[in-house]
Amino acid sequence: MAEKEEDPNHSVSGLTNNCNTAGVPVSPKSPEDETSESPVPQYAQDLKSVLVTSVLNLEKLDVDLYRGTHHWVPRTQRLFGGQIVGQALVAAAKSVGDNFYAHSLHCYFVRAGDPKVPVLYQVERTRDGRSFTVRSVKAIQHGQPILICQASFHMQQESPLQHQFTMPTVPPPEDLLTVEELIHLYLSKPNLAENAKQGLNKLLANEVPIEIKPVNPPQFYRRDATEPKKLFWVRARGYIGEGNMKLHCCVAAYVSDFALLGTVLLPYPNYRAKFSASLDHAMWFHSTFRTDEWMLYECVSPWAGGSRGLAQGRLWRRDGVLAASCSQEGVVRVKLVTEPSKL
Ligand SMILES: CCC(=O)SCCNC(=O)CCNC(=O)[C@H](O)C(C)(C)COP(=O)(O)OP(=O)(O)OC[C@H]1O[C@@H](n2cnc3c(N)ncnc32)[C@H](O)[C@@H]1OP(=O)(O)O
C-alpha cells in the first residue's frame, strides 16, 4: 500500500466535501450548526488552556525521562487517571518522529497516584518501524510504577476501507447548560437541604480544566435508574488552537477518563460507590480533531459484575466524525443507600 505523508497539522476546519481527512463521509451539518458555529475561536489566544501550559507541559529531566505536576485532584485524593494517561502520552510522543501520530494506547493503573509528589515518566523506545512505532511508558512515584502504558504511533496511510458509526442526534452545545450553570439552578431551589447545598458548592469549587454540557442534566440528588449510557459535550477550557494533533490526542486522553466509569452506576440508584477507580484504559484515535472545540462524548457500560464494570466511550467531532474511541474497566465497590431523597 502506498504511503502518503500528509501534514496532520492541517486545519480541521479546512475539511471539505463532508469528508474527514481519511475521506470518510461524515454527517452534513445541521442548519443550527451553520448558524451557531463561528469562525472566530471561542477563546482569545492569550487565554491558553491550563492543560497545555501546565498539566501536559512536562519538564525534561534526562533523555526519555520527564516530570509532570498536577492541576486538579479529585475528592478521592488519588491522582486523576486521565491526567496520568495524558502525561504518559506526552512523554511517549516526545520521542517519535514528526510524521508519526498516536493511534492507540493501552494502560494499567497499578497503584493510586499520590497528589503530594510529582510523577516521573520513563520512556522505553520499544520499536521504531517504517509505519508503526511503539513506546512503553512507566509513570513512577516513590520509586514504584503507578501506571504502565504502551502507546503506538502510525504514519498516515491511505486505505479504501473507511467506515464509522453515525453520531447520535443530540441538541447542539449552544442549547445546553454547563454543569456549573445546572448547579446554580439547583442551588436556587427553595428548601434545598443544607448538606445538598454544601455538596453542590464543593462541586462548584472544583477547578476541572474541562467544560461539560450534559445532554440529559444529571439528577444531583434525586436518583432514578437509567440505562448505563450518558452523553455530554466536552471541551478543554481555554485556547489550544489547531495544528498540533499530538497535543490534541494527549488532551483527549485526559478528557476520556472523565466521568466514564460513572456510567456503570446509572442503573443502580440504590447503590453508591464506596470505592471506585479505573483499572485499565485503552484508547484509539481515528481522525483529526480539536479538543478546545465542543466534542460529544458518548459513554456506555455494556457490562458490570464481580465488583468491576466495563465502560466504553466514543468522542465525536461536532460535524459527526468519530474522533476517538476508548474502553476501560474499573473496580466499583458499592454500598446500599438507605436514606431518602434529599430534595
Ligand atoms: C475517574 C477515575 C479515576 O481517575 S481513578 C484513578 C486512576 N486509577 C487508580 O488510581 C487505580 C490505581 N490502582 C490501585 O489503586 C490498585 O491497583 C487497586 C485498584 C486499589 C488494587 O485493588 P486492591 O488489590 O484491592 O488494593 P488494596 O488491597 O490496596 O485495597 C485498596 C482498598 O480496597 C479495599 N479492599 C481490598 N480488597 C477488598 C475487597 N475484597 N472488598 C472490599 N474492599 C476491599 C482495601 O481495604 C482498601 O481500602 P482502603 O483504601 O484502605 O479504604
TrEMBL record:
Gene3D superfamilies: Acyl-CoA thioesterase, double hotdog domain. Its EC number is 3.1.2.1, 3.1.2.11, 3.1.2.2, 3.1.2.27. The keyword Hydrolase applies. Residues 1-40 are annotated as: Disordered. It catalyses: dodecanoyl-CoA + H2O = dodecanoate + CoA + H(+); choloyl-CoA + H2O = cholate + CoA + H(+); decanedioyl-CoA + H2O = decanedioate + CoA + H(+); 2-methyloctadecanoyl-CoA + H2O = 2-methyloctadecanoate + CoA + H(+). Catalyzes the hydrolysis of acyl-CoAs into free fatty acids and coenzyme A (CoASH), regulating their respective intracellular levels. Displays no strong substrate specificity with respect to the carboxylic acid moiety of Acyl-CoAs. Hydrolyzes medium length (C2 to C20) straight-chain, saturated and unsaturated acyl-CoAS but is inactive towards substrates with longer aliphatic chains. Moreover, it catalyzes the hydrolysis of CoA esters of bile acids, such as choloyl-CoA and chenodeoxycholoyl-CoA and competes with bile acid CoA:amino acid N-acyltransferase (BAAT). This is Acyl-coenzyme A thioesterase 8. It comes from Collichthys lucidus (Big head croaker).
